[in-house]
Design goal:
The chain has 413 residues and is an alpha/beta fold. It is 38% helix and 18% strand. The N and C termini lie close together (9 Å).
């Protein structure tokens, strides 16, 4: 298909030993979150193929799994569910599997991440990568699995692990961007992970104090992130705005640091500060996600809250629902980074043809025209956005207000 790289932009591979009772449950849940199959999730443009490695191709007990073909993806994350049995196998019958994996990763120039999630103390270190920092999930207060009689069910710890995996993908993509920038700027081919200081992703909690449900959810999310190391930072105005300084300037700087969660309640759309925050998030091209908690209705739906993914929540969401909301925000952040990398070559090709390109990690909307028509800015000739293409009636509206601009989904480039 035109405009797309031949390989998957990102691929997640989950490795576990057959003796790990929860391995298949974890893999199924992670696949559902990272590679959603239902149409609504496909609209976000984020699908990360998920592969599994546990049993051998022959099915014979003790044999190593099929080798992981890293070159099928631009960027890989291999998540190892670490148990004592797996680490023992890595030094025995699975040694060749892990020798090849670590060797292939080293040969690909830091394009991939190997992440060990230790389910027990014996599952901390692969013999092939003994100094690799592992996630000590067995020390977490949140359980990876919850036992229901004789069965295991998904626990909050598994959602936390998914958030950490999404963050690890984001780190790798940002590192590769920085590496390529260093090469273009200084001809530096030696840029390494030690040269890269990744800022922590900050989740901006936009809400109105005029609705108790919004305040309650924002406070619960703030407390949850503070008490549990999701590897996320959080901005809550009541906690972070400094007295004596212009709060609009502070909000602008905070929005620039990460992703944006709009907690939409009955009075949210009518509050001027909330409107400012949404417009600023769109102006700065931040990943935006909406938690929808409207109880009775709105006098006027603020139009610029639209054009972004939404999760409908009850007035008092459960801990599990909040965990999934945080994962949604992290995946939306990752989606933008992934699309930016996937479209990189297509943008270069367009610029080589003297086109002026604006790359959007979401569908274009009318508020984008403010940026395009800014006298200090540059109006694009081509706007590239994620698939699927806009419907004809929406494309006609956009084109009628932006003459000379071609709107193209990535598959159309």
């Amino acid at each position: 298909m035109a405009g797309r790289m031949d390989r998957h932009p990102l691929t997640l591979t989950i490795v576990w030993h057959p003796s790990c009772q929860g391995g298949a449950i974890a893999a199924e849940a992670l696949a559902e979150w990272f590679e959603p199959l239902n149409a609504s999730n496909l609209m976000t443009g984020l699908r990360i193929p998920v592969r599994i490695r546990s049993e051998s191709e022959s099915g014979k007990a003790g044999e190593a799994p099929l080798a992981i073909q890293l070159d099928e993806a631009d960027v890989n994350l291999v998540l190892v569910l670490g148990t004592g049995d797996l680490m023992e196998a890595a030094g025995g019958p699975w040694k060749g599997f892990f020798d090849r994996l670590t060797g292939d990763m080293a040969a690909r120039g830091q394009s991939d991440t190997l992440l060990v999630a230790a389910f027990d103390k014996q599952g901390l270190a692969l013999p092939q990568a003994p100094n690799l920092q592992a996630q000590r999930t067995y020390e977490w207060s949140e359980e990876i699995f919850i036992r229901d009689g004789t069965n295991l069910k998904i626990g909050p710890g598994l959602v936390r692990l998914a958030i950490i995996a999404a963050d690890a993908f984001a780190y790798r993509l940002l590192f590769l961007e920085a590496k390529e920038l260093a090469k273009e700027k200084d001809g530096n081919d030696a840029f390494a992970e030690d040269d890269f200081d990744l800022p922590t992703q900050t989740l901006f909690l936009s809400h109105t104090k005029f609705d108790a449900t919004g305040v309650g959810l924002a406070t619960r999310i703030f407390d949850l992130i503070q008490k549990n190391p999701y590897q996320l930072a959080v901005f809550l105005d009541a906690q972070h705005l400094r007295p004596g300084l212009n709060f609009y300037s502070q909000l602008t700087r905070a929005i620039a640091k990460g992703s944006f969660l709009a907690i939409v309640t009955d009075k949210y759309a009518g509050r001027p500060v909330c409107q400012f925050e949404v417009l600023e998030a769109k102006r700065q091209r931040r990943p935006v996600f909406v938690a929808y908690l409207v109880e009775k209705g709105e006098d006027r739906t603020f139009p610029y809250v639209g054009n972004v993914p939404v999760r409908i929540l009850p007035w008092e969401p459960s801990r599990a629902e909040i965990d999934l909301l945080l994962l949604d925000c992290c995946l939306e952040y990752l989606r933008g980074l992934s699309f930016r990398r996937e479209a990189e070559q297509s943008v270069k090709d367009l610029k080589a043809r003297n086109e002026t390109v604006d790359l959007l990690c979401r569908k274009p909307e009318l508020s984008d025209m403010v940026i395009w028509n800014d006298p200090k800015g540059t109006k694009p000739t081509v706007v590239v956005y994620p698939d699927p293409p806009l419907a004809k009636h929406e494309l006609l509206l956009m084109s009628s207000l932006s003459s000379g601009v071609a709107f193209k989904a990535l598959s159309e480039v």
